[in-house]
């Protein structure tokens, strides 16, 4: 199933991957298949990082510790795409 990004919001926390309504990500298409999340190839030039593929929970290791927390970098609002 494909989803097109219509809004970018930031989560609270030390890691921020985007800015609010980041123009690099607005209009980009995500592909959700089973437990896999990936980006579709962009339709034109972009500064977005679209080579990430998630196959499980996104986590981050806290610097200088062994603690691993869920990654809360952003929230994307999407609409179903053809």
In brief:
This protein is mostly beta strands and 82 residues long. It is built from no helices and seven strands.
What do you see in this structure?
The protein is mostly beta strands. It has one domain (2-81). It has no helices and 7 strands. The protein has strands spanning 2-10, 29-33, 36-39, 53-54, 59-61, 68-70, 74-81. The mean pLDDT is 78.
What is the number of E strands? 7
List segments where confidence is low: pLDDT < 50 over at least 5 consecutive residues: none
**Helix and strand string, N-terminal first?**
EEEEEEE
Give the helix level as a range of percent.
Answer: under 10%
Q: Look at the structure and give the mean pLDDT.
A: 78
Structural class: mainly beta
Radius of gyration using CA atoms only:
14 Å
- In terms of DSSP E residues, the strand content is 35-45%
Main pleated-sheet profile: 5 strands, antiparallel
Q: List the total number of helices.
A: 0
How many domains make up the coordinates? 1
Spatial sequence of strands, sheet with the most strands? 4-3-2-1-7
- The outline comes out as globular
Give the N-to-C terminal Cα separation: 8 Å
Topology:
Elements: E1 2-10, E2 29-33, E3 36-39, E4 53-54, E5 59-61, E6 68-70, E7 74-81
Antiparallel strand pairs: 1-2, 1-7, 2-3, 3-4, 5-6
List keywords for this structure.
41% strand, mainly beta, single chain, globular, 82 residues, two-stranded antiparallel sheet, five-stranded antiparallel beta sheet
């Amino acid at each position: 199933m494909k989803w097109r990004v219509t809004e970018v919001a930031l989560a609270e926390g030390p890691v921020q991957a985007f800015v609010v309504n980041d123009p690099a990500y607005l209009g980009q298409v995500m592909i959700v298949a089973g437990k896999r999340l990936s980006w579709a190839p962009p339709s034109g030039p972009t500064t977005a990082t679209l080579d990430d593929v998630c196959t499980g929970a996104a986590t981050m290791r806290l610097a200088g510790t062994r603690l691993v927390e869920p990654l809360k970098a952003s929230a994307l609002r999407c609409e179903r795409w053809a």
